[in-house]
Amino acid sequence: MHQGDVEGAIREYKKALADEPLHKEALLNLAAAYLTQQKIMEAEELCRKAITAHPDFVDAHFCLGIVLTQAKRIDEAQKEFEQVLKLDPKNERAKKNLEALQKLPATTQPTTTQSSGA
Q: Is the pTM of this model over 0.90?
């Protein structure tokens, strides 16, 4: 995705959220757009807002796991991927990310599959 595309997408997601502040897909997609810009705090806030409003929203838990991984908050990221697996036991993306995090030495920067399905 080109930077201009991300900026346009951000504007559109913000418009959608102005009309419906808890729209789960808009919250998730805005979080993903912020993540591509390395706006970790903003992405985390949106993921948490989506989860608070929609506790069983698997993609929001997955996205939060990615955000926390990027923030190097590995223990928290693992908990989110575990939550994804509680909600969706066959979720291969969460399994792969959780396995990767569990194999990390404490000081290693993780690599994860960032597809949020959005």
A: no
